[in-house]
UniProtKB/TrEMBL annotation:
PANTHER family: RESPONSE REGULATORY DOMAIN-CONTAINING PROTEIN, STRESS RESPONSE REGULATOR PROTEIN 1. GO terms for molecular function: kinase activity. This is Response regulator receiver sensor signal transduction histidine kinase. It comes from Candidatus Thiomargarita nelsonii. Keywords: Kinase, Phosphoprotein, Transferase.
Amino acid sequence: MLNAKPISILIVDDNKNNLFSLHSLIEKYFKKVQVIEANNGIIALSILLKRKVDLIFLDIQMPQMDGFETAKIIKTRQKTRHIPIVFLTAAYKSADFQKKGYDVGAVDYLTKPIDTEQLIAKIRTYLRLIEQTGQQLLNDQKEQNVQERIADLVLEAKQSLKEDIVFKRQQIEYLKRELNTSLKLIINYNQIIETQASGLGYNELLSDIEKIGLESKQMLDLVKKVLDSKLKRVR
C-alpha cells in the first residue's frame, strides 16, 4: 500500500454477531487493514472525531440513530465528508429506499447475510481508490511544497540582490568621499605651492604647478560624473 499508515475500516452495526462476522472476514482477507467497531451511530461519530477512517460499512437499521442520519452527519463535516460509506441492509429494499441512501452520501449497498466474495471485491475496489486518492494528495502536497520552496528561493534571491545593491551603493559613496577628499587635498596643496613659488619668482615651476592643478580639477570633475552615473544606475 502506498499510504504510510494502514487503511482503517469502520464497521457500524448494533448486532454484535454481525460485527464479529464482518470484522473476522475483513481481517482474514486484508491483513494490513485496521478494523474499528462501533455498535451505534453515536459511537461511530465519536470515533470519527478522534481517529482517521478510510472506509465505513454502516448498518441502516439501528436504534437511537439510524444509518441514514449517521451518514448525513458524517457528510456534513469537512474532515469526514470524503469517506466512502457502504450501507448494510438486511434485505433488498425498494428503489426509493436505495435512493435515500445515495442522497445522504452512500456510495454502495451490501445486503445481509454478507456474501464473502462480494465483500472482498468491494473492499479491494475501494482500497485501490483510497490508495490512488492518497497518492494524488501526496503528489499535490509535494507539488505545493515545491512551489512554496521556489517562492522562498525567489524571495531570498530578491532580498540578496537588494542587500547587494545597498552594499554596492555604500561602497560607491565611500569611494566617492575618499576620492573627493584626496583630490581636494591635491588642489589645496597645489594652491599653497603656487602661492609660495610665486613669491620666489619661479615662473617655470608655477606654470607646471598650474597644469597640475588644472589636471587635478579635471580629474575631480570626471570622477564625479562617473560616480554620479553609477549611482543613478544602482538606484
